[in-house]
Design a protein that fits this description.
Layout lengths: L5 E2 L6 E2 L16 H41 L3 H14 L3 H11 L5 H8 L5 H21 L3 H13 L16 H6 L14 H4 L29 H4 L7 H10 L8 H7 L20 H13 L1
Antiparallel strand pairs: 1-2
Length: 297
Amino acid sequence: MVKSSKYCTNCKSEVKSSDTYCYNCGKRLKNKRRKTDKKLIILIIIGIIILPAIIIGKNKIIINYYLFRANNEKSISDSINYYSKALDISYRPDIVFKIGERLKEDKNIDDTIKLLELVLEERDLNKISSDAYVKMAEESFEAKKLDDMVKYLKKAVEHNFDIKRFKYYDSIENLEDLLNENYDLEINNEDKISEEDSEKEFNESTNKETLNDDEYFIEDSDTRYLTKEELSNYSKEELPFIRNEIFARHGYIFSNEKYNNYFKTKKWYNPNPNFSGNPSELSTIEYANVKLIQSLE
């Protein structure tokens, strides 16, 4: 096979293919290999630019698919699951917001939040969790389910919620004290709140005419929070009756003859031997009112 000759373009002297310079005139020779190297470098640069674009484009398609599924899922848990998958690919504030909105509708919020701990940053987890719990607390207050309200507010506070920002904060006296109370008390003699635990000694000569002749002293003391101002309108003799009226509504059977004789004259009073007078048997409002009246007796 005849090899093609290579000549210097300057002096026309014959040179070898491997030569870099012409040994006759010293001119630098063109090297096809260098051209090949340049082309390779150009291709590599193009690849570096285009490949991420391809990956980003693919991720965008996948994210949009997950968002489409999440937006159209009737099941809240499935919807949040798809949002979480999208978030795994790209952690975006708008996706976090969408998760928060669906979480507010979730009845199994506690379980869902545990799963979201694996997906969300702590700051975002606290924000959407507290927002969801606060919404439930507001709905509970409006439905007069005060036990549920306190339960949800406690959980909101655990996620760094400022209780003073609660919509109905000014409507509930001593709300912060209520959140600090333990309503899961065991039934025992020390916890029992009744006329036997906190009864004040009355003068046996108290004129019965000073007591309320109406059906109730305060008819709605089981559904709203009482205030110190309104209770200040009652005498020291009347306050224990107002307090025990809360227990009497549940049918508490009084061992003290004075209260027993008083409440059995009321048409609404129905003795209930199953009601022990334990704090856990009272609603949040009732318990708060009992504590407030005790502090004033």
